Amino acid sequence: KQEVTQIPAALSVPEGENLVLNCSFTDSAIYNLQWFRQDPGKGLTSLLLIQSSQREQTSGRLNASLDKSSGRSTLYIAASQPGDSATYLCAALSRNSGNTPLVFGKGTRLSVIA
Amino acid sequence: NAGVTQTPKFQVLKTGQSMTLQCAQDMNHEYMSWYRQDPGMGLRLIHYSVGAGITDQGEVPNGYNVSRSTTEDFPLRLLSAAPSQTSVYFCASSYQGAYGYTFGSGTRLTVV
After folding, report:
1. Strand, helix or coil for residue B85
2. pLDDT in tens, A45-59
3. Which segments of chain A have a pLDDT < 50?
4. Partner A, chain B 15-44, Cβ-Cβ below 8 Å
């Protein structure tokens, strides 16, 4: 059974700092891994999708990497801004779980202090 | 293009009442799923479907019922609401999972 873990649960950084959010998964047989952002009281917004054949994906100041062999993904945020404050969730789509949808980590709550 | 639409956005129920949470998508996605999100528990899968007429249970299916009569709609039924079902419910859809999932904006349900 796939399990996804995100550490730390919460992170506070000063504005302008570069930061890395971590995501680990127990079953490396995945189709893809997806990073989401969730603002308080809101839904999930997809940030980046990394297919199993890819090593990384970039969108603006965000860069997500995938290392299946170690069961890890990272989300790198460059030059953080207060508007980046949100909860970041990663989710894996496993090959070994039949058609079962995404398995989520519990998220990292990011606060960027001006 | 509306994406995934959930209704209602907010609902208060009394214990024992039943209701249906609606989910509709206009992207012709085969895969649809329901999650609940609770503080400290993350997102947990309730039920999912890989096409019209095909549904299956997720991690926390008890007290919920689903059906999938069309590709577009995937309603979630609460049979007899309990306070433990107080949560935020999210519906998601995907083209066979290959291109990622799109989520609705959620339904915040309170059972008193």
Report:
1. helix
2. 999 999 999 999 999
3. none
4. 31, 33, 35, 40-43
